[in-house]
Each structure stands twice: as structure tokens, then as C-alpha cells.
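Records of this kind hold a single protein each, on a pair of labelled lines. Below, a sample record shows both lines together.
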Amino acid sequence: MTVDAAHPTPPLPDHPPERGPSAPRDLRALFSPNAVAVVGASNDTSKWGNWIGVQALRMRERRPVFLVNRRGEPVLGQPVYPSMAALPQQVDLAVIAVPAAGFEAAVDDALDAGAKAVVAITAGFAETGQEGREVQTRLAERVRAAGAVLLGPNCLGVLDSSSGLCLSSNPLPPGPVGLISQSGNMALELSRILAERGLGFSRFASLGNQADITVADLIRAYTVHPETELIAVYSEDFGDGRDFVAAAAAANAVGKPVVLLTIGSSAASVRGAQSHTGALASDSSVIDAACRAGGVDRVASPRQMAGLLESLHLFGAAPARRTAVLADGGGHAAVASDLAEAHGLTVPEFSPGLAADLRAELIPSAGVGNPVDLAGAGERDITSFPRALRVLLDAPEVESVLITGYFGGYGEYGPDLAAAELAAATEMGELVRHRAKPIAVHTMFHQGAAAEELQRLGVPVFRAVEEAARSLGMLARHTPVAPAVRELPAPAAPLTDDGYWAARELMRTAGVDFPAARRVGTPDEAVEAARAIGGPVVVKALGLLHKSDAGGVALGLRTPEAVHAAVVDMAGRLNPPGYCVEAMADLSEGVELIVGVRQDPRFGPVAMVGLGGVTTEVLRDVAFGLAPLTPAAARRLLAELHAKALLHGVRGRPAVDLDAVSRTVAAITEAAAAHPEIAELEVNPLLATPYGCLGLDARVVLG
């Protein structure tokens, strides 16, 4: 058996077996068992059977603990049973830490003895390749058939502070955070950071390979666990990503925020993409879309996660965007203001009334317009800090306060000032507790007595001003209620033709308007089609994925001769199976957009909207969401574009019909979501105009 505690489980390509639509699992035997058996208990201090056994024996006052080892010799000074069948009573939970070769027999022994939950520490399954994956799948099916549940394999254990369960290699501090992690070292680092902030874990479960119990199952179990107030997830593989989103949204809806740390910034997942949609999507952009759909707060490091968890624990969903900056020096005030705005906060100028209230409390040289600069008042009158803070917290125009600078270090100037600073910290903590507005404090003396007093009273203290600003920024972005996640539509009749005409007709049937067009096979038919359509036309060669790149598109053809010549030229160079003759659209009053949908192996259909036409991959101004989109969700994505002002009219150009665009985007994503055989679909460009919108090109890539 081998377990890498630092990185136990790489992302896996297989999915856990289907169990139906988001059915909650009964995990009581996992988190609150009547008794526990450690299978593979060992005296060897280098083995997991020893580490788990040591922790398990510490909870004997809460429940019986049995050590199982087929050799039958005493382990850790305790009697050992050769099998679970030999135990004196039925045991709900079996923790199995035996070599992979003996794992199947150990699972059978546990199930035959009536175990309702199995924690599989043993590694050597899906992470090793196809043969190991097949064994893992077989074991998971065996466990489910017995009416039991399996955590892992290749996991690091489980903990529940409320039930006194400790079956992990290291004890973790108790607290309000439910942790789900694929990395043991991430869990340990987070526990150390949270402990510094007076927080700990209500539950911890190591995901492992998710052969049976998934991250979504654990989120649901934490959602109904009274002692869990917040849910922290480190996951590299989401299994059924839509189930994860639904579980997170349900947790968020009952006031239990989900904070996610994950990987996925590389482009490896989109290698070989054949469309703009595939080329512009990445694991990270898809995960961001999933997080928005589920109301999940995504962070980039364990320290960011701890900072946000602390803020959510202390301040919940309180608004925080309009920030007052309070500093005792101009440099700190300016830097903190820049950082606050860089993290999505605003530092608005105070109203005359608020400025006057601050002026009445501070020395004449103090700055009172926001940022507030005490201008060295700390040495002369340390009480200026709580006096200014009281005014700011009582002001309706202030939603949060960012304090930065020297506070916490004034005590070094002597015992009298040290005592006064500590008293000021106590007063500031009480103000924050009673006003319940978010606050973050940066001090150069984060280990001093005043800083410790603030932390003790529930005021977040940071050693770097950028951490303090980021914490408030993440809190300001937190969404207390996640948007509704739409169900996937029933699959439509599969599309078997990946040509332009088939893609165009699919979109037209979905409700997307296209210019008048005819499908033809010869130059003469093309001339006749152009006469029937009237006006300038476009000729497109069919059967090519990238028509423009191959020279398979001829624009602005105004005469029969031009149409005839274009088709003859394409026939000679490309020999396509046919042609599309299409009315030439007027681009003068429109904005070219791209709308695409890509099938993600974890999250299903993912929609993309952005600036389209030939600039798509150059500007890369795109936004993503889980498909199918509602018109309202489509409009929100359009509002995320950097160039969204183009849609509202600039430099004398009229605004586009955003209602029509939103409906069309939603229709495209609905049609794509109903065709799981389509790996990638896009309409590019989609011409948005003041009078509606028009699809000018479409393509599909079949999976």
C-alpha cells in the first residue's frame, strides 16, 4: 500500500457510477458509527495502520474500537482480532489500511460482518491505470450492493468533531468548518492557518478516488450537519460536476457557504479543440462558470481560503463593497486604497456630513475624505483609532473598514502606551462585534498584544495589507443566494451531419434567424439561387470546418458572373460536396458576437459568449456559463464582457436589442444542450443589431 499524503489523488478520467438524480446519501455510519474497526492495524510506525490506530484508540471513551490484523499479535498494546468476522459485536465503520493485494478480501470481510461504511486508506486502484480502475469499480459496486458506503480508496481518513470520531493520521482542531480535501497536506496547512484565527473543523473527509462517495455527497451531508457552518473544498476532480454545482447551490441556499480551492489553469484539457469555443475554454474558465452557477467562492491558496472562511464566519453575507480605509500614515493609506480597488472594492469620497463627524474626533492635520489618515495621532492619542472607527461603523455610507499601518506596535514606546493600545484594541473589538460590519486589519505587528486582542474579539488581523484587502474583496463578491441551475433538456434525435448546412438548419429550428439561403451543387444552380435571393450574396463551400481559412467563402457577390466564377474557383481548388448561397448581411449597425457551447467531461455543456468575427481569438473577450442558459443568465454573461459598452451604443452607433440577443443566446445553448453528441457548437458571427440578431455562420463538431 502506498499513499502520497501531499498529493494522494490525481484527476481521474473515469466517472463514479450513476446513482440517479442527486440522491442524498445516508452517511451516518461514516461520521457517527456505533463502533470502529481498524483493519491492518500495525506496530510499524511508518505505516498508516499504525497512525490510524493511534488516533482511533483515543476515542475509546466515545465508542468501541477494535484492531484487526490477520497475524493476531497485539498492536499498540491492545488485543487484535484476525478478522472482522471474529469481532464480539457488529461494527458500523471499517477503516482498511492493508496492501492492495489483500484489499478486496478485507472489504468482503467487512461487508459480511455487517459494516455499513468503509474508509479505504489503501491505494493502488484507478490512479494506477485501467486494471486498477476496473478493480475499483467492481469494489464500489460490491459495497453499494451491500447497502454500504465507501470513502476512497486512496484516501486519508475521516473526522467528526461532534461525534468524537478521529480516523485520520493527524488530529485537527475543532470548529465550524466542514473540510473536504483530496490532499492531506492541504488539510494540515489549512488547519494551522485556521487555528491561528481561532477556527477549526466540524468534519473532515478525504476524497481519495471518489469510487463511491463523491464531493457532492459530502457537501450534502455537511449541509444537514448542524455543527457545520461553512464548507471548504480542495478538489482536483469533481466527478459529476453538475451534481457538485447542485449540491453547492443547495448548501448556499441554507446559509452554508462553499469555498473551493482547486487546480486547472492549464490548457491541457483543450488540446486538439477544433473550434474557437474549444480553443478559448480552459479547465479554469469552466470551473469559474460552475462556481458562479453554484454560488461557490473560489480561492487560489490555503491562506486565501482561511481568510475568506474567517470573514464569512464572522460577518456572513454582510455587504462589504463600499470601504473606508483608516490608516496612521499617508503611504499606507494610499497603498491600501489602491489595493482595495484592485480587489473589487470601492473607496468612495465621504459625504460632507461624515467628513465633519470625523473632523470632530481627529487632529486638524488628519485626512478625512477617504482614506482617513490619522497623520501621526497614534503616538499622541491612541484612542483616535476607536473614535474614528466608531464614526465609520456608524455611517450608513460605509459597508466595511480596512485598517492598515502601525497599530499594534505603539506599545513598544513604553508601558503606558502599551496599556492604552491594548485598551484601544479591546474597544475596537467591541465596536466591531456590536456593529457587525466587515472589517480587516493589517498591522506590521501582527504578533503583538494588541493584534492578539483584536483577533480574540473576532477582528480579522493580517500580516500583509494585500491579504486584508483581498479578504474584504472576496467577501464583497460572495453571493448569498446562488442562481438557479437549469436541468439538462431531454436528448433530441442525434445529429449525424457535421456540415455547415446541418448546423445552420439546427440553429434555425432552435429559433435563430439567418439570412435567406439556398443549398446548391453547381455554378448554374448558384446563379439561379442568387437571382432568387436578390442583392449581394455570399457563397460558402460546404464540407469544410474552417471555410474562411481554406478560401471557401466569397463575399459581396453582386452579379451572376461573380457568383459563377466564385463557385468554379472553389470547385477547382477545394472540390466541396456543395455550396450555400446566402444573402449578404448589412454589418453597418451591428456588433459581431460569438456564441459557443462545448461539452466538458465533468460539467457537461458549457456556454461561451464574446466578441465574434475574425477578432475572436485575438481579443479573447469571452465569458462562460453552464448551459443551457436562461435569457437572464445570457444577459449576465454579456454584461461581463470588457467591450460590453459596444452593445449599448458608442460614438453615435445605436444600442443593440439586448432582449433579442439574450433570447437568441439562450436558444443556441438550449439546442446544444439537447444534443450531447455535439462536442462543440458555435454561431460566429452572431450579428447583434438594434432590430434583433442574425446568425451569419455556424459549425458543429461531433464527439
About this structure: Confidence is low (pLDDT under 50) at residues 1-21, 266-281.
